[in-house]
Amino acid sequence: MKKTALLIIAFATFSCTKAQKTESTKNAFSETALSQTLLATDGNQVKFEDILKNQKGKITLIEVWASWCGDCVKAMPKLKELQANNPKVSYVFLSMDKTADKWKAGIEKHELKGSHFMANDGMKGVFGSAIDLDWIPRYIIIDKKGKIVLYRAIETDFDKINEELKKLQK
């Protein structure tokens, strides 16, 4: 009985520490995140800060994903529905793929509409750490002023994502 209780407590503790928070705990990205460069589809390196500057004045949904990620692929129909229901929102995709070829093939295969960039060092690299990346797909919503409205949402949070986007568009 004691072993079972300990297992349940250990599992609950671990699960809670890894749980995704959907409320924003930040209103801006760290200097480390902003200074990182990402690969653009044209082969150029672009600072994350400049990617965000290009979104100024727009409601932006950032999706962090990878072509090899099963949960990312499963979420694509919901993402497309979100895009159809929120056409005034700007979409930025940040890939955690390991190679540019797989990343670009994923964009084409899934017909992803938006701006596309790839992290140079994957999920566990400097950029991933700087945005507290522990799960993909991950969604971040930024308002027209550049403030983070929703910092951490995952594929099970589409109702929350849609609700936040609708509020921002009023």
What does it look like?
It is a single chain. With 170 residues, this protein is of the alpha/beta class. The protein has a single domain (22-169), classed as Glutaredoxin. 42% of the residues lie in helices and 21% in strands. The chain is built from 7 helices and 7 strands. The protein has helices spanning 2-18, 31-35, 48-53, 70-85, 100-110, 126-130, 158-169; strands at residues 37-40, 45-47, 60-65, 90-95, 115-119, 138-142, 148-153. A 7-stranded mixed beta sheet has the order 2-1-5-4-3-6-7. Strand 4, helix 5 and strand 5 form a beta-alpha-beta unit. The model is unreliable at 2-24 (pLDDT under 50).
Tell me about the largest β-sheet: 7 strands, mixed
Query: Architecture, CATH level 2?
Result: 3-Layer(aba) Sandwich
- Tally the beta strands: 7
Structural class: alpha/beta
Assign the CATH topology. Glutaredoxin
Q: Provide the β-strand percentage band.
A: 15-25%
InterPro entries: Redoxin, Thioredoxin-like_sf, Thioredoxin_domain, Thioredoxin_ResA/DsbE_sf
Organism: Flavobacterium granuli
Subcellular location: Cell envelope
GO molecular function: isomerase activity
Tell me briefly what this model is.
The protein has a single domain, classed as Glutaredoxin, CATH 3.40.30.
Draw up the topology in text:
Layout: H1 2-18, H2 31-35, E1 37-40, E2 45-47, H3 48-53, E3 60-65, H4 70-85, E4 90-95, H5 100-110, E5 115-119, H6 126-130, E6 138-142, E7 148-153, H7 158-169
Parallel strand pairs: 3-4, 4-5
Antiparallel strand pairs: 1-2, 1-5, 3-6, 6-7
